[in-house]
Write a structure and sequence with these properties.
This protein has a single domain (16-227), classed as MetI-like fold (Orthogonal Bundle). Helices cover 84% and strands 0% of the residues. The protein has helices at 2-49, 53-68, 71-81, 91-116, 120-128, 133-163, 175-186, 189-227. Helix 1 crosses helix 4, helix 1 crosses helix 8 (189-227) and helix 3 crosses helix 4 (91-116). The chain starts with a helix and ends with a helix.
Length: 228
């Protein structure tokens, strides 16, 4: 045990800067992927809720297809299958695109469920008092739907954060790739991957707790409104 801990003390000054930089890359990768997932997910929901049956079918097909395809297969396809077509993406942007497209399918379901959770009578009542459809969505529908969607969206980001470790297989300098390189360099894989787990925990655990707190508070608010 003393030898195990002494290795940490010996190499910590060398490991910390590299792992901290890799953690920043992981945060950037997952944040950019989640931002893309929000954008594409919102577009998919707009297509589903629109009146065009072709767009509705295309959006539903995309959601079902992406949810059945492993994220790793999607990442490898973006990184290795696109260059023969004349499209070459760096590992970082291939990871962002893969995480974004994969997450968009789940974000779209969260957004659609949140919007459908509101009773149609609220929208009809808002229209009856003279509000335009855009005003109804911005001031009546969306603020209430956000209460339903917020906690699941935070959980989706946490899931993308953990899934970003797969981007190590497409040469993205995130935590897992750097840890693999360091374990080959120092021959101390247990020490290094234990530290990597601590880094992931330090990033994901506060977000998971935030999601739990939001879910409890917002659901309590919904119960109060339902009781009134």
């Amino acid at each position: 045990m003393n030898s195990f801990m002494s290795d940490f003390y010996q190499y910590w000054p060398e490991w910390w800067p590299r792992l901290a930089e890799a953690a920043k890359m992981t945060a950037k990768l997952s944040s950019a992927g989640f931002a893309l997932a929000l954008l594409v997910g919102a577009i998919l929901v707009a297509m589903i809720r629109g009146g065009n049956p072709v767009l509705r079918f295309a959006a539903n097909f995309f959601i079902q297809f992406v949810r059945t395809v492993p994220l790793l297969a999607l990442l490898l396809a973006l990184y290795f299958a696109l260059p023969p077509l004349g499209i070459t993406l760096p590992g970082f942007w291939a990871g962002v695109l893969g995480l974004g497209l994969h997450g968009a399918a789940y974000v779209a379901e969260i957004l659609r469920g949140g919007l459908q959770s509101l009773h149609r009578g609220q929208r009809e009542a808002a229209l009856s008092v003279g509000l335009a459809p855009r005003q109804v969505f911005l001031h009546v529908v969306f603020p209430q739907a956000l209460r339903v969607m917020l906690a699941p969206l935070v959980n989706t980001y946490v899931a993308l954060l953990k899934d970003s470790s797969l981007c190590a297989l497409i040469a993205t300098d995130e935590l897992m790739l750097v840890a693999r390189a360091m374990s080959s360099e120092y021959f101390l894989p247990l020490h290094i991957f234990l530290l990597v787990g601590v880094f992931y925990f330090a990033i994901a655990f506060p977000l998971s707790m935030l999601s739990r707190v939001l879910e409890q508070r917002l659901s309590r608010g919904r119960r109060v409104m339902g009781a009134t």
